[in-house]
Amino acid sequence: MEELDLSQLGEERPSGGDEAQLKAILEAIIYVTDEPLSAQQIAAALGHPIDKIKRILDELVAEYARPEHGLTVREVAGGYKMATKAEHHEAVRAFVKKLTPPLKLSLAALETLAVIAYKQPVTAPEIMEIRGVQGASVLKTLLERKLIAESGRKNVVGKPILYKTTKEFLVQFGLKDLSELPTLKEFEELGRMEVVEPDPPPETKAASEHG
Amino acid sequence: MEELDLSQLGEERPSGGDEAQLKAILEAIIYVTDEPLSAQQIAAALGHPIDKIKRILDELVAEYARPEHGLTVREVAGGYKMATKAEHHEAVRAFVKKLTPPLKLSLAALETLAVIAYKQPVTAPEIMEIRGVQGASVLKTLLERKLIAESGRKNVVGKPILYKTTKEFLVQFGLKDLSELPTLKEFEELGRMEVVEPDPPPETKAASEHG
Amino acid sequence: MTAPLNFHLEHYDGPLDLLLDLIRKQEINIYDIPIAQITAQYLEYMQRALEMDVELSAEFIYMAATLIHIKSKMLLPRDPELDKLLPEEDPRKELVDRLLEHERFKSAAEMLHQKRVIEEAVWSNPQIEQFLAEDNNPGLAVTLFDLVKTFQVVLERTKSRPIYEIDKEDVSVPDMIRYLRNVFENESRSETISARGLFERQRSRRAMICLFLAVLEMVKLQAIGLVQNDSFGEIGLKRLKGFESAFGSEQTMTVIDEGYH
Question: Are B143 and C152 in contact (CB under 8 A)?
């Protein structure tokens, strides 16, 4: 396939007259970089006189300083950097806190959940046996998230608790019922595992269990 | 960290200053977050009516669309997101450091993705039928990159897994929603136009087929 | 007939791709495909692929059969009277429909590619990290696919479980006694359990030593016995009558726990 010619998207060489264009480019550059960029660095990279760059940067600083902007272009450490205005930090922080977090699971939790999903009902020792990992279980996390529930006790000495997945589990993974879980055979048919990511050495895994 | 009472942030006090304040906060929020945020999410978290939030967001979109801005507030995957404008990519590229992880897809993967995008939910055998190729290994790539996801099973013999595109697909391809995709009919018309009718070379005349 | 194209032998992603390319490159009207010509070219491609040891999948051969079938159908003379009553469908129609459908999706793929090119020229620089609370530890946002894949990985790991030293504090003799108790409880009463099997399942030297001591403890308690059917044969562990009285209450374990503390 051919590369799309992006010059069609309306880029013109920033000429002396086209200050709006240059200002736009400066805005984009300051947004994109994490480290403060000095006027000199920018001027050198874009091939424009430093005075001109400095003047336009100052315009940007002044514009973003207006109260209707929540962002600011600041001069820090001899360079320019975009950031949120300090007076809105609490509002932003509160907002971020309220964002419904996606279902996040540690690798250990995901492994445990996978074992329960496919082997249910199953006891904690059995899960550990399958996972080949000893140490603190993540069952509590999964119970708290209502992804698994207790399902009676196994009729062996010690009567260990059996675990199964819940309705919430089905909802979270978009399953109508458990029979919709892909079988391992189906998974393998999706193409041989090309061992994409090398398995972390077992020591690290065991260590992270305890951590 | 104390929870800030967001209702202090200018609600129900219909003065221009408050609206400017709210706009500033919206700008800061969109700048900060990595997932596209829907107007509804923002309205719910800030405790403002959605109409008001939507109006101010549209103002932000319009303002950043002006050519003197190098940034844009885009509607992607049902939400709003800040990014640089594509037309400045050459100037910006020099300053970018590992911001967008590359997403390189093979032609086979793109075709499979196209079939899923248009026919979803769709099963692996149906995809293969359209593409005229066996082998589902690209499905694994697409699943791994979270561009597609399982979507239940089709109620036919064998209960094959159905696939659909994800929100990540919309984000990666810069789509507001699926309805933004051109219809398949549009492609058909494109194809028809390309058929440079008469004048087939003599030996290809249909008559020679039968003779 | 000589092929008008320079075939890129490995280029085609399936027979539909090859056919479309033959048709479009020669500017053939897709609604009136000269089937004999295309079939010949198609077969020539397959021949060349064969010569160059390019592996062609089954669907290339199936398509060759389809083309020959269509060709033969078109050669059959048709009864003009019957045609009036029961107009026969063009034998090429089904193939043409598939080709057109395939082509539409090729165009769609091209469109997606162009959208990606634009997205690759767009950068976003979220700064959410600065606003995340410290207790908001990042985890994995997971899908069903992740779940299956994880299970697969767990099973793979079970197969090739390596021996490694785990934390010294992790295994003790009482642990191993409990482990053995569980093993026997899950087996039928008369079953002999292979000692070698039990030891092979251990993942550290310490675990093996603890298991060995645990076996001795349980033999001492007369909960289990050792059996060997022939002089150099496998050693097996067998549950004895004393098993119940030894483990019927928690008392035995309490004593052992204290003894090894």
Answer: no
